[in-house]
Protein 1
Amino acid sequence: MSFRVIGKPIPKRDGPEKVTGQLRYLHDLEVPRMVHGKILRARYPHARIIRIDSSKAEKLAGVLGVITGDTVDQHPFGFARDHLALKRGKVRSIRDEVAAVAAETEAIGEEALGLIDVEYEELPGVFDPDAALRPGAPLVHEERETNLLDFRFTFEHGDVGWAFSEADAIVEGTYRLNYVTTACLGTMAAVAAWDAQGRLTMWATTQAPFLFQRDLARALGISGDRIRVIQPPVGGNFGRGLDLYPIDVIAALLARRVRRPVKIVFERMEEFIASPTREPCVITMRTGARNDGTLLAREGRVVIDSGAYVSWGSTTPTVILSTMAGLYRCPNIRFDSTVVYTNNLYSGSMRGYGNPEATFAVESQMDELAERLGMDPLELRRRNANRPGDVTPQGCRITSCALTECLDAARQAILQPLQRAPRAGWKRGVGYAAMFHVGGGARIYRSDGCGAILKLDDFGKLTLLTGASEVGQGSETVLAMVAAEALGIPLERVEVVNHDATVRPWDVGVHASRTTFIAGNAVLLAAAELKQQLLALAAELLDEAVERLELADGFVFVKDAHGRRLPYEKVVRSGHFREGGRILMAEAFYDPPTQMLNKEFRGNISATYGFACQAVLVEVEEATGKVEVLRVASAHDVGRALNPLACEGQVHGGIHMGLGYALTEQLIVRDGYVLNPQFMEYAILHAQDMPEIEVRLIESMDPAGPFGAKGIGEAGAIPVAAAVANAVHDAVGVRIRELPLTPERVYRALRGRSAPSPSSSSPVGERAG
Amino acid sequence: MKPRVIHLTVNGEQREVSVSPNDLLLNVIREQEHLTGTKYGCGIGECGGCTVHIDGQPMLSCLVLAVAVDGRAIVTIEGLARNRQLDPVQEAFLDHSAVQCGFCTPGMIMMSRALLNENPRPTEHEVREFLRGCLCRCTGYVSIVRAVLAAAERGAGGEERS
């Protein structure tokens, strides 16, 4: 099948606005009479609020109003309904919002915050799950009588006890994953404006506008139809915008109080403290296998530090389970989870959503197992690789699957000769890690659907109204490509409308690498319907049978009749200007044929699954513990790369985020306080820190995907950390089970190492060097 | 604080603006000149999103007081393209899809332009070193570095019209 648009490296549609500085981001938005909001946060991670005196702040010239938890009408929100935007009675984390100010300028607002006098009674806090679960531990939410959350993710499949007794080799370990954060270049922001009829317009950072609309309505105690959600361009999101946050509610409450539109923009330090993080967790796992490498059983338990409230970070055990039970063929699985309130920051969703964490444990353990069995680590993976037709213990039905090809491609790419000569005092090593992730949506809500409306107009322009959200990843480009291909219309004549939830059809949100697959399929369904309408009308005008017509380049052609054609605009106009006229418009809703997980955590939650393998070549300086990544090879089963430029771009960015997770990024939270809320100390990798990157896109042509595509948004970020840890072990023989692999951590491990480094005997490391 | 009137050339136009002694150039550009292509990312010179050219030199406008640049020529991202003609660096960023969310893009382009003015044929290593003050969370810098090298290849060095 040959395509006109699909498979071509098409630059981003909003590129010209972005490279010229013309694009108006949420941060750049100004609304007439708009004032600025500022938020006062807790002074202590756990304290009773005795008294708030805002009288001085209210008297400051330029201040329009101050609100606190007790002076507004607000309602709890969040997954566990445990959260008020402005706290009442006590604060439970350093992020907690105590008061908010609306002022003529940001500077006045800032000054006013300093004039609010809050009297606290400091309370002892709990800052890790172990402490939080001890009898008599201070309670984060007293009314709940325990810090243990009442949701648990348990799973059992096969006969785990028997399987471990049969195993020739068993490895076990505990893996510690810490706080990291999305660190988007554009901070979180919100603009709220109420009209004379009590209707609210919200310009927000959200990436799930329709769920946001519902949640915000509940938090404000109004009905959802009173809210219009607009998503201007944001500076990244990566999962950050998946929940409703206090910033959104507070902007609306302030605007209601002062009867002026209110804009709140986080400062960078505030972004580090108050925007959602990846959840810190501890995974304890064991894996058993036969002598020939066949996996027999995996057993794991995860303890999640939920922080002071519940958001998406607390539900990541579903994905952690999915990888433990799904990555490689492993017939006997047992899993359990413990989710605990503490006085730390609460976590949200972040790219990969539990999977980088799980993959770090599973793939570290695969290498440990290979070592125990004396097998090549890649051969062990190949032997157990998922294949088309497999059904995982949870019931995930694997259709297209090129995992084996990914393993081989990553190996081939990582072993290419390296320009750089080996350095004295540095040892080289190669590590591998693979990935299993949803690639055809993820039914975590009862619907996993997305709507599309296509309108062909009398200028021959096709307008796509999609439920899908653009957060910089390029969805509007790829969806326009799908529409252009399906309807034979030049790409530049397709317009995508995706910012205003009022005019767009419904969608769950941009998450779980689902947009290309789900929204793309919705576009295809609507296009098929519109094509029929267009052909029927054209058939009438041309006096030909529909079967004799075809669409290309914005024309309806009569097959084998050179020259007989009609431009789309002419067909559309003929529909307008006739008795009993019509318009050319079609709508569709695509909800994949998948299942929600049942109470036993079984179900085929995605219409297809994505696979990848990443290989990492490192050098480790033995004297200092410094790890330098020289090359990352990333091979991905993408179904079909609809836009190779965008597809590779997603992988590149994922690798950057994954390498940060592996090597440098950590939000240091001690006794509830964030110690490094700046880029200088929260080290995302700079251009000169990045290794050579080789991407291999492997096309398995998914039968259910739009033109064969599956999701790719998160994949690049998922296996990297595990591959780095495996490469470090290959280089210097130390197994590090905690991230990030800072020089100090590696150095300490090297000092504690009993035997000399086995890297000299590592064939892979040597060959790569 | 008492406002002061300063004179700037902004993207080739003479401007007279009234500023407070503690106003940052970044805020004057964004709020008074309404040139919002220059971005606030951190406010303390760590991210590079606010990079502009002052008399041809790349500077972080979040670290510069407006009163300190009285009489100087400022070029922002909006002033790089002239007569609807994109700068070759902007073109290269488009062609190589060196743009995802785009929030770092203005700073990256201003910094890259400054590099090519100074060093028309940089090595990949020199590009990476020069851009070290500009953070990107989306691209892993892969396509950005490619774009800058491609712009250099096309002979884009030293072409800035300011």
Protein 2
Amino acid sequence: MVSTLKLVERQLAMVDIRRRLEERVPQPGRYITYEGIAFGPCLLISRECGSGGSLMAQLAGDRLGWNVFDATIVDEIARSAHVHQRLVQSVDEHVHSNWEQTLRDLFSDDLSDEGYLRHLQEVLMTLGHHGNVVIVGRGAKYLLPSQCAVRVRLVAPLETRAKRVAERQKLPMEVAKSKVREIDKERAAFARKVFQKDIGSALYHDLIINTSKFDEGQASDLVLDAVKQKLGVDSLPKTMAASPLSQKINSSPGAPVDRAI
Amino acid sequence: MWNNIKLQQCISHINCLPQLETNDGLIQPSITISRMTGSGGRTVASKLADCLQSYAPSERRWTIFDRNLIQKVLEDHHLSARLAEFLPESGTGTLTEIISNMFKSQPSAASIVKQSVETIWKLAEGGCVVLVGRAANVITAGLNNVFHVRLAGTLEKRVARVETVYDFDHPAALRYIKSEDMAKKDYLKEYFGRDIDDPLLYDLVINTDELSYEKAARLIADSIIRRFDLEPHREVVAA
């Protein structure tokens, strides 16, 4: 939990710096809604289990200089009243009241004010509003305006993904395969239940990458090209990216390994 | 628009293929593009060929074969014969085997479909082609030099484009898109037993709702340049 709070503090410090810069020079990749609320730039990663989502998020985050909020971290923030409050109170009151209506329109009676889902959505909206962030999973692509983000989905054949999971977690292949299937099923059910969406549809993504056809470097270069093309945001060259400090903070020590694949 | 999608260019491309076997030692990539109707298949193909031209060997020209042009090649016996000459001996066995396996459960598949498999395979194997539609992604799935792309988009945006490009009113555009999409889906299902929306049939799926055709083409081109380690040819380097 400490590292989650640290990550939130770090993100808010970056937001503060960005706001000051924005007063002098407009920052690329910001999208302003009709209501005048700014979002982005964000990289939103959705993934089949074992398709390399965590690694992609880390590689892209390092080269963009953006913090990575994976599904476990986002969940931790949503479940911790203290951390959730620290993040959400960083949003101006008028922005927050505008979201109230958006969330009510989207989710009607399904959400109690203090419920986990309600917090989850506030966390995702806040992260999206502040921008300069990589978010992995949790349906951020359905909540945030599509113009503020590059929405990527990673897929690969079941065999390939199960093999990766089996190697990483030292599991027999058959066990890995059924684990992969189970996690995919859970994620699809979450998207269907909370957002009434088909998780794999090409219509909610800018890119779907078959990671069995690319090596890690090629796939992350492709994603960063898309960030440049769609949002106008440049990334650092490979040699200048990846500070061990950001990797340490970004990885959540409490995260179950199999959820972070 | 689409000024590099021409039969004449396809004829020149095919006529040059047999000679390339001897003097073109390097593997040249090919690209297949599958697309939802109205998502920009031909425009992206056209821009992609332009982007990649400076990376082709100096004697080669990136050539686009869309559905109509593939049909014309199939109907022209001279072109088909010319194409047959290109097929290397070692490849003949593989291709025959692949075609027979592909249609194992469909022995009665129309001979025109079998011919198109052969044609598409040979064109892709020769490199420097963009093949639009005709199940080219499934047909060439076994070739290492081929990069497979699908273009997608929301119905709303695709209808708007079709209205502009073909000067249709809204209901006509909607009807056109639905019937074309259904025909493409059925063709793949009926003859190849595959689902056109399965992302695993492609290396990359791009949604052109918010990425312009130019940018989509650039993304694909850069990916191909990296995958196949292509380098610009001398004139470009000198320039």
Protein 3
Amino acid sequence: MANEPQISADLYKRTFTNGLWRENPVFRLLLGMCPTLAVTAAVRPALTMGLCVIFVLLCSNIVVSLMRNLLKPHLRILMFALTISTFVTIADLFLKAYQPTMSEALGPYVPLIIVNCIIICRAEACASKNVLTVSIVDALGMGAGFTLTLCVLAGVRELLSTGKVFEIQVMPDAFVPWAAMGMPVGAFVALGILLAIVNVVSKPRT
Amino acid sequence: MDKIRYFISQSWLLIVASFCFGLLLAVTDAALSPRIEQNRIDKLNRLVKTLIPEAEHFKPLDEQIEIRTFRGEKEQVTVYKAVGTSGERVGWSFNAAGTGFQDTIELVVAVDSDFQKLKGFRCLSSNETPGFGDQIKSADFRAQFEGAPASELSLVTTGDREKVDSEIVAITGATISSEAVVDIINTYVTQVKEKMHKKGLVSDGK
């Protein structure tokens, strides 16, 4: 890419870590709340959801970035939606074919990635304005941030609701599982507490 | 003419992309759909095999059986004949569905070869409250059905779970879910049994 402006390694690093912490999609931008609340009852579905989002985000960022100069401003959202829904459907079919149990456990939440605002947000805010390489790094950073956050939330909920993490017993036998943590109410409570912690930790330093 | 030219110039990307993405989806679907269908059949077979271990394969009856659900709707039920290793009939199985506490409960029910006794049920899909209603999947609740008479079952709140008879002891805190399972089984088993007798597929109780 000789004619593209020089991109420093520092920019890549900043773009990647942006998604992990400074602009973490769940904790900082509060995007993608639907899967965050719905699939975090256990770590395994949360991880699967995170990987699906990384795949879709990466593919849509690549496609959008490649055609960014051809996009007509008033038709761009339509193009984003078309791109995203294609890749989500592919991810859904792959899950159904190779991970049928997981696909059943996730239920409608895989097709619902289509309306996950993280993906359309990255297409609009990053991929449609940046070169291919930056868009790819951004997709990986944002996707990794989303996946990690989901896994942390799911880890807390799975531990408290079953005493297990990744289906491996970690709590002593005397531990009484909190069934409520596995239910929707547990998702709201756990997310609220985690958000509060993150807000305290990342208080703007003056 | 100018209008058409304007229209094309604005939307050519959208049209081209739609075709490309459509093609991509068609290819993926064609490649994966046999596997997805196979997964569904495998799952059903696996579940029914745990209920009728002596079955070697399952053969659907040529004619579907029409029953009335408790909402009064007509439904076509495909009954599968379980065939043992030497070709003898070892049981019957069919899918049954009804309204649970939160969502539809789908069961697969197995009955012995003379439609006299239940061989049990397994849950295909349900969305009952974790920790309470989802105990309909638990082994001790299911065990009450294994060997119970294939006629009207009744639900009681107290009783001996170990005793296998037409009285099913409800799960504490999940009466509605327990009732739903009993209702689904009653609705399907009694009607399928009656129709099968009429068709002469099973002999009257000897």
